[in-house]
Write a structure and sequence with these properties.
The protein is of the alpha/beta class. It contains 19 helices and eleven strands. Helix 4 runs parallel beside helix 6, helix 9 packs across helix 18 and helix 13 packs across helix 16.
Length: about 425
């Protein structure tokens, strides 16, 4: 059996919910596709009285039949008669849960809207009328982030306010990525680690695709990613079209511009030739793919905003794969690889900043972290980590090579930034690949 990594906090939270069997619990688990939600849940329910449902886009009758079998095999619940409606099946499950405690997992929950658009309303009525007598631990999980948020957090939706707990699964931290790479390649280099982070950002599925294909060095990883059968060539499109629908073309164009360094709305608007404010807002608030970055300690109302793609793989995809679709269609995978390698040092330098930001978040006791630049973007500071409780601030310059770090230049920039943090103890450092 494959080794299960990390997720200690999530498993602890789920175990805590599981011990509360005196009444019904409804937990929502969200997170981008490939993050490891299903693996987490299967690991959690192992050796517990539980049933796992996976929602497929099939007819309601077939799904009911399939789930009836699962219930009998998993928890011994025999449902007699020809049940063809999900609401009838759910009602029987909730009745059974009045006598017995068990876990029910429904994976890809949002797909139930395609199976029966009225089911969520029916589910709400059944849940509300039976939850106080029920002992069920119901866990619902979904990959289409925007739909899961809408189902449970939109006040107009029937299941609004019904969840008793929510978990959002995030990528593996730098230390977990290191552990995994070390397990598969004990002699890995810092370049191997940076490349792994650049391509996966800690997303479980991507890491294991590389590790299990023995792509454990920078060279092998780039070779795998640009191979004719590589999932990395198509996953960006597959991942987002289900979220964005028919307007995905405009969203993709915006993401491509951001990945190319056009990070202000005015720059994006000038290329797209329309006001993209609503699209940027959707990418941020609904799809959770980009976020606005302001210089640290700038007011929320400041227009000095840069947009950033938060997901390492998607940043890689829109920088290299999406913009070179013609090479893929022509079968010129060697040329695609050449383009990636040619731009690798510059591109991975930005990833190094994200790596260290994530590492500092994981290891340091901080209350705020970000970057800073002046109004003319002539002076920039890569990372500022602040502890407002103990009044100290650590400031970092990040370069791939240690010899390129100039602490005197950094100190000059700090003198411009200092006015934001009076009476704080300030320390400054250089971070290079040696510090990974």
């Amino acid at each position: 059996m494959a080794k299960f990594y990390d997720r200690i906090d999530e498993l602890t939270a789920l175990e805590k919910i599981e011990t509360n069997s005196s009444s019904a619990n409804l937990t929502i688990i969200t997170g981008r596709r490939r993050i490891g939600k299903t693996e987490l849940l299967k690991h959690f329910i192992e050796n517990k009285k539980s049933c796992y449902f996976f929602v497929t886009r099939t007819s309601e009758t077939l799904l009911c039949k399939q789930w009836q079998k699962e219930l009998e095999i998993s928890i011994g619940l025999k449902i007699f008669g020809n049940i063809t409606k999900l609401c009838d099946l759910f009602e029987q499950i909730m009745e059974f849960s009045k006598q017995e405690h068990f876990i029910l997992v429904i994976d890809e929950f949002q797909e139930l809207k395609n199976v029966n658009p009225t089911f969520f309303s029916q589910m709400q009525n059944i849940w509300d009328s039976t939850k106080n007598q029920s002992k069920i631990n119901l866990i619902v999980c979904g990959s289409v982030y925007s739909m899961m948020i809408k189902i449970f957090e939109d006040s107009k939706e029937p299941l609004f306010g019904r969840a008793t707990a929510k978990l959002n699964l995030t990528p593996f931290t730098p230390s977990v990525c290191k552990t995994i790479l070390r397990d598969f390649n004990p002699n890995y280099t810092k370049e191997d680690l940076l490349c792994l982070y650049m391509l996966t950002g800690g997303v479980a599925k991507y890491i294991f695709l590389l590790m299990e294909s023995n792509s454990v060095t920078k060279e092998k990883m780039i070779e795998y990613v640009t191979g004719i059968t590589s999932p990395f060539l198509i996953d960006g499109k597959d991942l987002l079209i289900s979220e964005m629908g028919k307007e995905y073309g405009i969203y993709f164009s915006i993401l491509a511009l951001i990945s190319n360094g056009m990070t202000s709305q005015s720059e994006i608007d000038s290329v797209i030739e329309k006001n993209t404010g609503a699209y940027l807002s959707n990418l941020h608030k609904i799809f959770n793919i980009i976020k606005p970055i302001r210089p640290l300690y700038t007011k929320e109302t400041s227009r000095n905003i840069r947009w950033e793609i938060t997901d390492c793989y998607l940043r890689f995809y829109f920088s290299f794969i999406y913009q070179n679709q013609n090479l893929i269609e022509l079968g010129k995978y060697d040329l695609l690889k050449e383009i990636i390698l040619k731009n690798y040092e510059t591109f991975s330098g930005k990833t190094l900043e994200k790596y260290f930001t994530d590492k500092i978040k994981e290891e340091e006791q901080i209350t705020n972290i970000g970057s800073w630049w002046d109004k003319k973007s002539q002076n920039e500071i890569d990372i500022i980590a602040v502890n407002d409780l103990e009044k100290y601030c650590k400031i970092y310059e990040v370069k791939r090579k240690a010899e390129k770090i100039n602490l005197q230049v950094l100190e000059n920039k700090i003198s411009l930034f200092k006015q934001n943090i009076h009476n704080y103890n300030i320390q400054f450092f250089g971070l290079s690949m040696n510090d990974m």
